[in-house]
Amino acid sequence: MNIHSYYLTSAPRKRFISYVWIASALILLLSGCAPKQSYDAALILADIAAQETPSHWKSATPAPNQKEITYRIRNRIHRGTLYLPASAPPQAGIVLIPGIVPRGKDDSRLIAFAKTLARARFAVFTPELKEFRHLQVRPEHPRVIADALLYLASRPELIPPGHLGIGTFSFSVGLGVIAALEEDARTKVQFILGVGGYYNLETTIRFFTTGYLSDNTYYPNPSEYGKLVFAATSLNYLTNSTDQMVLEEMIQIKIRNPDAEIASLAPHLGPAGKAVYTLLSNTDPEKVPGLIRTLPAELHQFIKNFSLSNKDLTQLQAQLFLIHGKNDPLIPYTESLALADALPPKQTKVYLIEQVLTHVDFNFQSLFTRAFWTEELPDLWRMYRVIYALLGKRAQTDP
């Protein structure tokens, strides 16, 4: 088992795509009339499942153009990848941010989704957040995302004014919301698509370390991935070189084998490193707030800075579409509900997925089961509605 085992599912791809395509056709029939937006949404749903493999959507639309670019925003130099529709001008723009994954913007799932949206006439931009490749979140990341928004907003030949948004996954949902709160970016963002995101970072840490939700419901097998990201991020806040080396060794051991024992290395940690280790190895939810307070001051402040629960969300102007799997083992679905509750009802819509979404990946099993009709088809209907709503954010520029 390696690091990708935390994040990826292993459903048989060809059978899976066939089922999703059949389910998409059923959804299209159930939705009544079939205008182009409805038809496109059904094709896109199946194409998202297909990722980089063939699909009806790929057959029906030309492959998008893709290029690496370097750009400057107020003397800040950034890089990213731009995906553009090949045969017609874009009708909207979207900045896509992956979860904290080793390949960053070059993750195959993000590339596939970017191309899917570019075929739907979105100008898609994926900025480089190079620290993601080391599983690290940095204080400057929301600013990089905000600059990507400003870049697209400054290019009217790429997007019609008033049709710009963000697509975010996992921990990056919080980064995207914080970016959309930046004073120079908040009026530029009309929508945010968030998949598997958080609201209160302390509550999220409590979940992926102990398995307990905010109401003390217990989740038996929380993902270890959150611990890896937190440990890797904490390296930037440890001033003792021995702490850094020992914790890095622990991280690498867990990447190679999540079940490996690392407790024997803990005695080599100093006070700051041991505070990080103790938090991540703790299983008592009642101890989490106190353990967070014992972290190095700058790391404790990092948790506050990246929480959304302490932000003035009245400044947020974007409409939010939040998708969350109820069986998410990394960030509990209650976090998306909490984020939605913090905003006016008309500004947010939450789509809770019962079965077919495992954090940020499809996990659709069989068409010929009772669960398909009672759980999986309703889930796909919810996801279809999200795609339909997202397509509605495009400018209707064609006659």
Largest sheet: 8 strands, mixed
Q: In sequence order, what are the helices and strands, one letter per element?
A: HHHHEEEHEHEHEHHHHHHEHEEEH
- Count of helical stretches: 15
Strand content: 5-15%
Low-pLDDT stretches are 1-19
What is the number of independent domains?
2
Q: How big is the Rg?
A: 21 Å
What is the residue-mean pLDDT, rounded to a whole number? 87
* Percentage of residues assigned to helices: 40-55%
CATH A-level architecture of the largest domain: 3-Layer(aba) Sandwich
Number of beta-strand segments: 10
The CATH class name of the largest domain reads Alpha Beta
- Structural class, from helix and strand content? alpha/beta
**Widest sheet: strand ordering:** 1-2-4-3-5-6-7-8
Q: Determine the N-to-C terminus distance.
A: 53 Å
Let me know the CATH homologous superfamily of the largest domain.
Alpha/Beta hydrolase fold, catalytic domain
- What fold name goes in the CATH topology slot of the largest domain? Rossmann fold
InterPro entries: AB_hydrolase_fold (IPR029058)
Protein name: Alpha/beta hydrolase
Question: Keyphrases for this structure?
Answer:
399 residues; alpha/beta; Rossmann fold; 43% helix
